Amino acid sequence: MPKYIELTEDETWAIDLMVRHTYAESGSVIGQGLLLKVMNLILEFDDRRGTPTSPVALPMAVTEEECWALDHQVRCDLTINNKNVGRGLLVKVFRTLTAFANERDATSGVAWLDDLTARLPGNDGGEPRNGHDGPGSSGRPSGGNRLDGSHDHPGDSDDGASPPLPRSK
Fold it and tell me: Does residue 147 sit within a domain?
């Protein structure tokens, strides 16, 4: 799923200057599609220059692969029209790459939690693990073993009440 980066006219020219149409990553030519997007933005900036609707920045949809291409080919000290645009452009790219990574981590994290939930005793539709009858009313497996591996002590009860006080002799 693509994400959007707001680019100024100088940043679009910087991408046009730095990215080559032949740039390929993993056998896939990324540069040509990226430059077509940039060319459209440049034309939009040019068409609207001097009008009341002249934009300061325009959005451009980018894929993660295109962001890595920008990271690889844009220098942080790049100057266009006597303005340092490289650093600002790269910060936008870094934020977008981080968003892609966070999205991927969140998705894999949910899958991991689903897998852990499926492994809990009684969730597989078969026999609970380790011969336990499944969780009791307290959420602990019956049979004297706690989830943390310790054993019930005399006086422990599953009703949540405190154990009885020791009697004096």
Answer: no
